[in-house]
Amino acid sequence: MFRKLILGLGIVTLSAVVFITGIKAEENKTVILATTTSVQDTGLLDVLVGKFQKETKYIVKPIAVGTGQAIQLGRQGEADILWVHSPADEEQFVAEGYGTNRTTFMHNDFVILGPKNDPAKVMGAKSAAEAFKKIAGIKALFVSRGDNSGTHKKEKLMWKEAGVSPDKEAYIEVGQGMAQTIAVANEKRGYVLADRSSYLSLKKSIDLVIVSEGDEALINRYSLILVNPAKFTKVNSEGARALFDFLLSEDSERIVGNFGKEKFGQQLFFWDLKGDL
Amino acid sequence: MVKISNLNLEYSKRFSLSVDNLVIEEGKIFTIIGPNGAGKTTLLNVIAMFDRPQGGRVEVFGRDVSDGKNSLSFRRQMSFVFSQPYLLNKTVYENVLLPLRLRGFADGKRAEEMLDLFKITHLRNDNAALLSQGERHRVTLARAFVSNPKLLLLDEPFSSLDRRYKESLIGDLRGIIRSNRITAIFVTQDHAEALSLADSMAVMKDGKILQQGRPQDIFTKPASKEAADFVGVETIVEGVITKKEENLCFIKAADNILEAVSIYNAGDDVFACIRPEDVVISRHSETTSARNHFKARIVKIEPWGLEYKLNLNCGFDLTASVTKQSIEGLGLKTGQDIFASFKATAIHLIKREGG
Amino acid sequence: MYFILEGFRKGAVLIFGLNSEVLAILKLSLFVSIAATFVAVCIGVPLGSVIAIKKFPLKKIIIALINTGMGLPPVVVGLFVVLFLSRNGPFGFLQWLYTPKGMVLAQVIIATPLITGLSLAAVQSVEPKFYRQILALGATTRQSICVLLKEIRLSVLAAVIAGFGSIISEVGAVMMVGGNIKGQTRVLTTATVLETNMGNFDVAIALGLVLLTMSFIVNLALTFIQQHKVRPNG
User: Fold this and answer.
1) The predicted structure's pLDDT at residue A116
2) Cβ pair C98:A63 closer than 8 A
3) Confidence grade of residue A277 (pLDDT, cut at 50, 70, 90)
């Protein structure tokens, strides 16, 4: 009786598997896009992908994770196209042969947020690097993403440029998304590096203000990279290319340029690509 | 109908069942009596194919069931009643119908017949879980009979019932078993139950059968000390109540009249049981308050534990127990005529089947 | 405080306004949870019953494994399911990653040990002779188990309710395996996380309320079945 049960379960599972694998219709329609949470959380991703899916037969699966994980997915051939914002990692990715057609096409910027009373006197700083130096100087509390995301990598770059390390006691690594990190900084009245769009989304619910912005170093550039089909046979290179072309098209340029104006009163992303592809 | 030969089953390191030869005839009620741990339930389980023996042959319905094969078709020809009524949380009707449902034909009429037979029709739509103990036992029995079993196995089915209720239920059950010519194997520890509900009987102890035969024979003349230890020795006299005055019954047993206090009525066939220690011996006829007073001849004197047993003949076999001092004091010898008396309240009556 | 009140208000608007996106998310949540619960029950209840009743070697070890599985961390399950369903994984050919099928699979893996363990305990709590009595009445093993389960319906349904509860509230595995893709694999729990990340606390609270309401309705139905009693003179 016992054996019959196991056998029965085995047969059911096996037939389910066989039946389902018979339906492989979606093979070439699925495009896996590995991207970052900052693109998703603003809502831009939904708009662009939505339009693409409406106009083509493709079904896009945007996997919004940290930049580190997105690039790792590319390294394993688990994604077809990347949309990330970490130039150093991107270059290495392409150099190692995992990706092709790297195209930097848009940017937004980071801002440094801090408490209204600004104990480190960041507001007077002449550059972003100096701001970081000042924060470390008085051992002011700094809240970090701590998750290898694009934002986190930018933050680490800034500490390097400033030539300082934050005091261990005054440094918190949250290990979560931008909203949570800002929330923690808000609670503890610390400083935090955030992308502008996130700040604008959360502005009304926090007491932190922008203490530094505009520096060239705070520019955050996004690139598209096609995962190299020569390295991974399972990659949907056709679909990836279609999405790639769409995201770099004039339609896309228009959408990106207008995005945010209605909700936040200002443009969030800026198009960098000149001319046709 | 059931033939067991050279059966052995090792249950655990301390207990094993070993039956050389046991035959149960078709249409008869066979009772197995014995103390706890004697192996009675295990024997039933072997017959019912719940336990498999290591060796031996167990023939039921003409085939050897010790191989454990085809248990389902076998079980559907028999019924097993446990000591606890395991009923479902449903109506009495649904509970009684269950065995038929399991076999694929929910014959409602038959279920109703069973309710009627066991006098529980008025409980038909009641939730079985909410009935009294006695009523639940009746439902269990009705359920056991609904499938028309050829063999009925009962494992101490009345152990949790009070005496009064038990007697009426046993009476009903006996009638039903007889009229349907069912073979029944009935396990109990209670002597009175065994006397009421047995054509033949076996005494078991430590996994072995000590003695087989008619109940009254085993109770009056146990063949071994071990059997006697459990069964005890009693005087059991067959008789019929001829007259009743208030609660005093006059019982005709062979040529003697016994007087006993009982709830039974004139016309009832009974066993009259008298415990040896209730019999008073005297050399001369004495006036006592005991209503039963007989002249008796000593047939045998034998030691019994700390006392002595006297086998007497007073027209019927009577066993008395006396101390060593009494024997010496009264100068009792085999062959002597003495007087034996016992009170009307010392007789314990058990209803029996007539004839 | 403001956000909590806003959340309730927004929730009412979303629900009664029948916002199409929220409806799609709700539909998918219902589908995935009910499908996963159904499969987990179909596997777990019979499996738990059989293990409880039969004797076999290593029985205690198997039960210990099941008990461990009851506390299996969903994120760990999610991680392994992702690895197995990924393109490079052994089951990549199924292409279940980032689809509702994959999500159902992960949740089945999470809920089945729970339902198995609870069914096992429920059946074991019945007197062993009861099962034997049913067999003695002429039932096949399958029939006996069915009768037994109906008798301990209270406990079995508690297992089902527990299984459903663990599935509907799960977010980690379903996020990893599904990917929280709009219109495809976004369910109430993952949508709540997303809205929170975006800073839309009012929407997040609203979605949380929708989730609780849905869960309550399903559990209400299950509870009615569980508590149904035979009336004495019915």
Assistant:
1) 92
2) yes
3) very low
CA C36 to chain centre: 6
Residues of A in contact with C199 (CB under 8 A): 179, 198, 201-202, 205
Query: Sign of the CA dihedral C96, C100, C103, C104?
Result: negative
Q: How many domains does chain C have?
A: 1
Which residue from C47, C87, C196 is facing A179, i.e. has the nearest CB? C196
Question: Is any Cβ of chain C less than 8 angstroms from the Cβ of B211?
Answer: no
What is the average pLDDT value for chain A, to the nearest integer? 86
Instruction: Answer whether B51 touches C (CB < 8 Å).
Output: no
Homologous superfamily of the B2-225 domain (CATH):
P-loop containing nucleotide triphosphate hydrolases (3.40.50.300)
- CATH fold, domain B236-351, is OB fold (Dihydrolipoamide Acetyltransferase, E2P) (2.40.50)
Give CA A164 to chain center in angstroms. Answer: 26
Q: Find the DSSP H helices in chain C.
A: 2-16, 20-53, 59-70, 74-85, 100-124, 128-136, 141-151, 153-168, 172-178, 188-198, 201-227
Dihedral (CA of B256, B262, B265, B271) sign? negative
Closest CA to B352 of B247, B261, B236, B232: B236
| Contact call for B143 and C138, based on CB within 8 A | no
Structural contact between residues B69 and C212, judged by C-beta atoms closer than 8 angstroms? no
Same-domain check for residues A204 and A227: no
CB contact under 8 A, C231 and B127: yes
Report CB contact under 8 Å: C136, B88.
Answer: no
How many CA atoms does the CB half-sphere of B337 hold within 13 Å? 5
Residues of C in contact with B80 (CB under 8 A): 133, 136-137
Burial of A233 from C-beta contacts in 10 A (0-12 / 13-18 / 19+): exposed
Listed residue (A138, A109, A120, A142) closest to A211, CA to CA:
A120
Judge B/A contact: 3 or more CB pairs < 8 A: no
C131 touches chain A (CB under 8 A): no
Identify which of C54, C181, C201 has the shortest CB distance to residue A2.
C54
Query: Is the minimum CB–CB distance between C95 and chain A shorter than 8 Å?
Result: yes
Please give the interface size between A and C, counted as residue pairs whose CB atoms are below 8 Å apart.
Answer: 70
Cα torsion A11, A17, A20, A23: sign: negative
Q: Which whole-number Å values give the CA distances from B110 to A109, B99, B258, C139, in the listed order? A: 86, 11, 45, 19
The residue that leads in pLDDT, B328 or C38, is C38
* Contact assignment for A62 to C87 by CB distance below 8 Å: no
Name which of A162, A34, A31 is nearest A86 in CA terms.
A34
Quick one: A199 and A250 in the same domain?
no
User: What is the pLDDT at residue A25?
Assistant: 46
Asked if C129 lies within 8 A of B82 by C-beta distance, the reply is yes
- Chain A hits for C3, CB-CB cut-off 8 Å, are 205
Domain assignment present for residue A150? The answer is yes
B48:C234 CB<8 A: no
Find how far residue B96's CA is from the centre of its chain: 26
User: What would the pLDDT profile of C39-85 be if each residue is shown by its tens digit?
Assistant: 999 999 999 988 998 888 899 999 999 999 998 999 999 999 999 99
Mean pLDDT over each residue of chain C, to the nearest integer: 87
* Prediction pTM value: 0.73
**Whole-number Å distance between alpha carbons of A248 and A276:** 9
- Distance in angstroms (rounded) separating the CA atoms of residues B169 and B319: 31
